[in-house]
Amino acid sequence: MKVFHIQAATPLCTNTFLLIGDQGHAVAIDPNAPAQRYLDLLREHHAHLAAVLLTHGHYDHMGSVAELRKATGASLMVSELDAAPHVDERLFPPLDQVSCYGDGDHFSVDDMDFQVIATPGHTSGSVCLLCGEYLFSGDTLFCGDIGRTDLETGSMAQMNASLRKLAAQVPDDVQVLPGHGPFSTMEQEKSRNYYLRAAMEDPK
Ligand SMILES: [Zn+2]
């Protein structure tokens, strides 16, 4: 598997990723950079896009989904809760023809095995995607920080439970690739991230 980091040159600088497996099947995670950047990489590596995976349903994680799907026929996967209609359609653009994934789901594309970890808090349908040594943590866990919990369907109580779950389920040597900002590791976050530490120390 090859992992490409494609940063969207938008005000929120979303981190997006293109993963290309050994047999040339690829997935895009939270594609928000111009579609051509993914398409150029796919062509360069003789790969085809099998699926687009979203960590959650916010607009700044899906700007090129429609164009990429039109160009490649890729399927779109997102959690059921974030695919559902929302009051704030600017924040949660409506999605169609989605396949939904949920907590504990495992699926493979090429040589890439994904585990879905539901991590509500930033949105009720937020997930983190564990793939080998990488955790695509969306807007749940950042380097030294966490995502906002004050937007539609956000919940600090759910976020704390999700942080505890990540600390329990994700090995220390896993690389954390968040939706915004620098990359990290679980070990570093467990030792330095105030919110993660506080959640881990909370006896609930
Ligand atoms: Zn978000």
UniProtKB/TrEMBL annotation:
<dbReference type="InterPro" id="IPR051453">
    <property type="entry name" value="MBL_Glyoxalase_II"/>
</dbReference>
<dbReference type="Pfam" id="PF00753">
    <property type="entry name" value="Lactamase_B"/>
</dbReference>
<keyword id="KW-0378">Hydrolase</keyword>
<dbReference type="InterPro" id="IPR001279">
    <property type="entry name" value="Metallo-B-lactamas"/>
</dbReference>
<feature type="domain" description="Metallo-beta-lactamase">
    <location>
        <begin position="14"/>
        <end position="180"/>
    </location>
</feature>
<protein>
    <submittedName>
        <fullName>MBL fold metallo-hydrolase</fullName>
    </submittedName>
</protein>
<keyword id="KW-0862">Zinc</keyword>
<keyword id="KW-0479">Metal-binding</keyword>
<dbReference type="InterPro" id="IPR036866">
    <property type="entry name" value="RibonucZ/Hydroxyglut_hydro"/>
</dbReference>
